[in-house]
Structure formats: structure tokens, C-alpha cells
Amino acid sequence: MARQLRFTGTDSKVDGCPALHTDEGSGEIIVQGTPVTEPGDLAQLQHFGPGEAAVAVPRELLVNWGPKEVERVPELVDRATFRRLFETFDHTAWRLETRRGYASDRQDPDFQAFLATGSSPCDPDEPWFVNIKAQTDTGKTVGRVRVADSPPTTEQRFLLDYARHNAAVGEDIRYLWREEADRATLPAEDFWIFDSRIVALLHFDDQDNLISFELITEPAEVVRYAIVRDAAMHHAIPFDRFAAQVGTTE
Predict the structure, then answer these.
(1) pLDDT tens digits, 96-142
(2) How far apart are CA 166 and CA 159, in angstroms?
(3) What is the DSSP letter of 191?
(4) Following DSSP, what letter does each residue of 20-37 receive, concatenated?
């Protein structure tokens, strides 16, 4: 069975080699580099056994991208701490949404109104809207890319309709079909990234309930999520253009 490898990082400025990958199943680090084949070099290697290979990589690759801990201990925070990030970030807050639905949306009266009328209402005085408008009015950037199925689920249709309310307070809402997200190798993770410095990874149960918030500040991991953000933004399109695409497929 093939390993499930996750790209960790590279110091290369051109062709992406050398690089590190992580085996998601075992936690092993896969080192990609220049093969060491000179017999005189191999003869100097200790504990070098049959079937093993040696590669040469710059020291900086391991310093910058190698794991800093034998086993990373998740830093879990409460909801209040998570919410404060939206008040204290300096310049950017961005989210990737990949789930087919969220329990919080299904419990929202606005969702019930959408089911009944096909249009979602909005209270502009909700704390979320008030704070995001205050942040974007100062020049800060708040945005999201949402991954949608074809055809979109009912919950995804609700969020697509609701996106106009988010946009009204300054959020940049974009969309990406799931097959395009898969081609771009975006992870099936939901997270916020603040100031390219802090990642808040959102954990859900099987019923789509948000159950915990994990903060990640290790530079190599934060960069990995920033790479995901850049790829998602490159492929995604504004919500109104996406809504037009959904309309033509119905």
C-alpha cells in the first residue's frame, strides 16, 4: 500500500529539490535529495545496510523544515481565546472551509429561513459582522475559500447565499469545486491563519460539530498552511461568479 505523504517543505528556490515529506501514517520523514553513489563515500557510512539509500541535502533543509519535537503536543485553547484572535490580528485573517456541512449552520435560524424561502436573512448587528466590519474598515484583510461539491450540498448552498452578507462587511469570499481542490492537493482541513504567524486548526466530530481549537505556531507548519492558502486563492473564484456557475448547472 502506498504511503500517505504530506509535503513538508523545501529550501530550493527553483525546482523544489531537495525537500522533506512526512508519512502521515507512521510519522517517518522522507528525505528527497541527491543520491550518494560514490563507493568511497558509501564506505564511510556507518550502519549502512543492504537495500538502504543515502542522499545528500543542505543542512539548512533539516534546520528549517525538520520536526522540532519528537512528538508535537497539540496546543488546545478555549472558544474565548480563539475568538480573541479576530480582535487582535494585525493585518490578515483567512480561512479554508472544506466540509460538506456544519452543525452550527443547521442550528442557525437563518438556515431554516433559507430552507423555507430560498434566501438567507441577516442581522448586521451580530457581533461577528460588527467586529469584521470594524477590522476591515481599518484596512485589515479577512477572507475565505470554500470548497464545494458538485452539486453543492444544501448547507453549501446556504453558505453561498449567505456569502453576500459576509462580503457586505468586507470579507473576501471565494469558492473552489472539490475536484479542483483535489487536483491542487489541498488538505481536507478547516483552519484559520492569522498574520501568516498563527494557525487555528478546527477539529470536528462526525456530526460536524466543532469540538476543539488547536493553535499552531511552529514556523515550518505555519508556512505549510500558508502554501495551502496561496494555492487555494490562486485557483478559487469570487462567490458571485461561482454562484453563476452553480446556476448554469442546475
Answers:
(1) 999 999 999 999 999 999 999 999 999 999 999 999 999 999 999 99
(2) 10
(3) E
(4) EEEETTT-PEEEE-EE--
